[in-house]
Amino acid sequence: MRRSTVAAIAALGALLVPALPCPIEALAASAPAPAPAPPQAPPQPYDAQLLRLSEILGALSYLSSICEPAQKDPFRSQMQALLDAEAPVAPRRDEFAGAYNRGYRGLAATYARCTDNARALAVRFRIEGVSITRQMRNMYGG
């Protein structure tokens, strides 16, 4: 695991522990066009965990936009850090951004306003996110 990824995951874990707006497409699209990409790196053993974490970040980003609209969304910037550290070029970047967008849009289709269930779901997502970050730090270093 790259050092920058470990740092991004550690920062994300710290972000998810405390109490609980827009899709990441703009971030993926606004990234400067990379030079011809080197051959795609083989899949990493932790990719499934990072993809799930990306979905969780998207879900939490949406939930924070409806439940805490006055507060700045920290989950989008954490996703950007994860993209920069782990998926700097397409198609890997697109895969991670797609997972974020699935999490965001999946909840946008279900919740139009903040409810008790939405708040409870945010807590469950935070717990799952913390669990994933701890597993990854324990298994892959950091």
Distance N to C terminus? 9 Å
Task: Give the radius of gyration.
Answer: 15 Å
Number of distinct beta strands: 0
Tally of helical segments = 6
- Main sheet record: none
> H/E element string?
HHHHHH
Low-confidence stretches: none
Structural class: mainly alpha
> Share of helix among residues?
55-70%
Average predicted local confidence, pLDDT? 84
Shape annotation:
globular
Which range does the strand content fall in? under 5%
Number of domains: 1
What brief labels describe this structure?
142 residues, 6 helices, globular
Question: What is the gist of this entry?
Answer:
By secondary structure, the chain is an all-alpha fold.
Question: Would you give an account of this structure?
Answer:
- This protein is mainly alpha-helical and 142 residues long.
- It has one domain.
- The protein has helices at 3-16, 25-30, 47-67, 74-86, 92-108, 116-140.
- Helix 3 (47-67) runs parallel beside helix 5 (92-108) and helix 3 packs antiparallel against helix 6 (116-140).
- The longest helix is centred in the C-terminal third of the chain and has 25 residues, at 116-140.
- It is globular and about 45 Å long.
